[in-house]
Write a structure and sequence with these properties.
Shape of chain B: globular
Oligomer: heterodimer
Number of helices of chain B: 11
Distance between the termini of chain B: 25 Å
Number of strands of chain A: 10
Number of domains of chain A: 1
Low-confidence stretches of chain A: none
Order of helices and strands of chain A: EEEHEEHEHHHHEHEEEH
CATH architecture of chain A: 3-Layer(aba) Sandwich
Strand order of the largest sheet of chain A: 6-7-8-3-9-10
Structural class of chain B: alpha/beta
Chain lengths: 246, 483
């Protein structure tokens, strides 16, 4: 199993958020999690990425034969986990080139691969950026600083395609995007998709799933997955909302 | 603040100061204490002319009537001026060695350890260095090459003997001995430092640099630097400083005077890394420095860039007097304080001439239990028509026990002056760290990246050869370990 979450319960500040959640993802699969606001979707994404504000009450998570709780945030990232943030944070004065260059090399170091040199990296960055319709001027700016919502999301996908993760978690990446930006973002995901990597897509709306075809759709309500199935579930939700699952 | 951040902060505070070693060398020291005899002793040791001794004694009599300025946001015990050695030199230094073969190998080794090799072929390409060890200048490199252009680059002691006219004209002309108690003290007991004269129309082809090292215990270092850029000339100058780890505080009170004549430009960069004291606040250098530049001629320019990471106490306000019309003054500063360090630093821009411009970019970073204050004064005199100032002060706090303060003073006697002031205070943000780490960067890499990003505007003003070093130094001051 690639990613296996068993009986996971999590709380933050005395509030139980995830309740006995189970989820398994195989290599090469695309999973979507849908759910109303406050159902715990983003918490799940952050617990997977290793954010430290949460208290794990119960359960286990296995990722690529590692006990995920043994790894800290950066070790999980270096093992191939990527989180595209719902609200990417601004880092003034830090340019994406050295930032991502250090990131990719820290991953290569852990995998015992040779580090990538400046020039090859600059080339890689440029070619991936042009694939995503990101102009060179944007690469000269500081990470996320002064970006529009849409720019930030494209920038997340750019980082994802450079770091080429084994498991990419997209936390509401579609929110705040117009239809053109949505297409660019979903194109990026579809290009990256292969039999060797997996995606966990968290979304509120069915729209995104018109562009990225998931193998499985899960409905999350009040901290647990209440229904799993194929993409037909997304259509059900589109029609009737989350009401009938609550 | 989560536990990992606190752990990292804790590791920062276990500061390992790389330059804390002591050189075992026989030193010649007169008795401790400040009096006329010691001043006569210094003057005699330096083989100074009578007028210089008189100048010193006059400054001393002023000092006796003065009290230390107390307006800074600094706490420290009373300085006992009678418990300090005012002169310390490796034995046999009455005459400066003519070349390196006459220098004690222990001294050469000291500077090699500090990464400042004295053999010219090993020195950073394009940088001429004057090195000052306690009270004396040890060696000056590339002298011959500079002399061909008419550039004088030597120790101030040598200049007093060989260029008395320039010294008489300019020494104390920007910082009068009686300006305040530290300038009076320095004027009375200064021992060595650098002297630079760039003749009319000459662009100095290499960086000039002075490296200051305090070695001896209980010894004050009082260096004096004087730089004169004649009409249409240019010079870029850099100073660096380190000291051994000692449990006692040591006093450093330097005076630096710059004079830029018509169309001349002086760029002065400092990387200050004196011993800051240990994690409990024991030891460290008291750094009371007066730096002032005079833009005497039209269209002249003086630019100060400082990276301040060391010293237990930093009291320092590199200033510009913009006298010539259209002259420009700039101040770029990064000050990092950790553990119990205290820094009260900033600048003073005095606009006298018409169309004068000044720019102030200050970045303060506080960690541990340190206090970091920006203090700046921008004043426009009556005749400073259409003068402009832009000030930007940013503070970054790392942790919950440190402080950042901004104290700007503005005084305008001319209503055509334009003043812009921006200030911000931010804390290093958990979300930024989380974001960087999610991309695979370690916690320390992330902090270093964010802080370097915060300082970028200033670091990029440093001469190329030193920008990379400064960046490393910033990271080291954060990590508190040898990089």
């Amino acid at each position: 199993m690639f990613l296996e979450i068993k009986d996971l319960s999590v709380k933050i500040e005395n509030k139980n958020i995830l309740k006995s959640l189970n989820l398994s993802i195989n290599k090469g699969e695309v999973h979507a999690i849908m759910g109303p606001n406050g159902s715990g979707k983003s918490t799940l994404a952050n617990v997977l990425a290793g954010k430290e504000d949460y208290e794990i009450l119960n359960g286990e998570i296995n990722f690529k034969d590692n006990d995920l709780f043994d790894l800290n945030i950066e070790e999980r990232a270096q093992e191939g986990m990527f989180l595209a943030f719902q609200y990417p944070v601004e880092i003034p004065g830090v340019n994406i080139t050295p930032f991502l260059h250090s990131a990719i090399n820290s991953k290569r170091k852990r995998m015992n691969e040779e580090e990538i040199d400046n020039l090859s990296f600059a080339k890689l960055l440029k070619s991936k950026a042009s694939d995503l319709d990101i102009n060179i001027d944007m690469l000269k700016r500081s990470v996320n600083t002064g970006f529009s919502g849409g720019e930030k999301k494209r920038y997340e996908i750019l980082q994802m395609s450079i770091l080429n993760p084994d498991l990419a978690i997209l936390d509401e990446t579609d929110s705040g995007l117009d239809i053109d930006a949505l297409k660019i973002v979903t194109d990026g995901v579809n290009k990256l998709k292969s039999k060797d990597n997996s995606f966990l897509i968290i979304t509120h709306y069915q729209k995104l799933l018109d562009y990225i075809k998931p193998d499985y759709v899960h409905v999350m309500v009040d901290g647990s997955i209440v229904k799993s199935g194929g993409s037909e579930i997304a259509s059900e939700i589109e029609k009737d909302g989350f009401q009938k699952f609550q | 603040m989560n536990s990992e951040t606190l752990n990292t902060l804790d590791s920062y505070s276990k500061n390992k100061y790389k330059y804390g070693f002591v050189t075992e060398i026989d030193e010649e020291k007169p008795k401790k204490g400040l009096n006329e005899d010691i001043i006569k002793f210094i003057s005699l040791k330096k083989n100074e002319p009578e007028w210089m001794l008189k100048w010193r004694l006059k400054a001393f009599s002023k000092w006796k009537k003065m009290k230390e300025p107390k307006w800074a946001n600094l706490n420290f015990p009373e300085i006992d001026y009678q418990n300090i050695y005012y002169y310390s030199a490796p034995k046999g230094f009455e005459k400066k060695p003519k070349d390196l073969s006459e220098v004690d190998p222990k001294l050469i080794e000291t500077y090699n350890k500090l990464g400042i090799p004295l053999e010219e072929q090993k020195v950073l390409a394009g940088v001429a260095v004057d090195v000052v060890f306690d009270s004396v200048s040890v060696a000056t490199t590339y002298k011959g090459e500079l002399e061909k252009l008419g550039i004088i680059f030597c120790s101030i002691g040598e200049a007093i003997q060989k260029h008395p006219d320039l010294i008489k004209k300019y020494l104390g002309s920007v910082i009068p001995a009686g300006d305040h108690s530290f300038s009076a003290l320095n004027s009375a007991v200064f021992t060595d430092g650098s002297f630079v004269y760039i003749p009319e129309g000459v662009k100095c082809p290499m960086e000039l640099s002075t490296y200051f090292r305090i070695n001896a215990e209980n010894t004050g270092q009082f260096e004096r630097t004087l730089i004169i850029a004649d009409k249409g000339s240019y010079v870029s100058y850099l100073e660096g400083c380190t000291a051994p780890k000692r449990d006692d505080n040591q006093l450093h009170a330097a005076n630096v005077e710059l004079i830029a004549l018509e169309n001349a430009e002086i760029k002065y960069s400092t990387v200050q890394n004196w011993y800051p004291g240990d994690e409990d606040g024991k030891g460290g250098i008291y750094n009371f420095v007066t730096k002032r530049g005079l833009c005497a001629g039209k269209n002249s320019k003086i630019s100060w860039t400082q990276v301040e990471t060391g010293s237990a106490i930093t009291w320092k306000y590199p200033s510009c007097i913009l006298k010539g019309d259209n002259s420009i003054g700039e101040f770029y500063s990064v000050a990092i304080t950790n553990n119990f360090q205290q820094a009260d630093t900033g600048t003073k821009m005095t606009h006298i001439g018409k169309n004068t411009k000044s720019k102030i970019i200050s970045k303060g970073i506080s960690l541990g239990k340190s206090q970091n204050t920006y203090r700046g004064e921008v004043s426009f005199l009556r005749k400073a028509d259409k003068a402009r100032n832009y000030t930007q002060c940013d503070s970054l706090l790392v942790g919950n026990n440190c402080g950042a303060h901004t104290v700007p003073y503005i005084d305008s006697k001319n209503n055509t002056a334009v003043i812009e002031h921006e200030a911000s205070t931010s804390k290093i943000n958990e979300d930024q760290l989380y974001y960087c780490r999610q991309r695979g960067l370690s916690h320390e890499e992330a902090v270093s990246l964010i802080v370097n990003g915060f300082c970028k505007q200033v670091l990029q003003e440093l001469p190329m050869e030193f920008a990379v070093e400064a960046q490393k130094l910033v990271s080291i001051s954060l990590e508190g370990s040898v990089g």
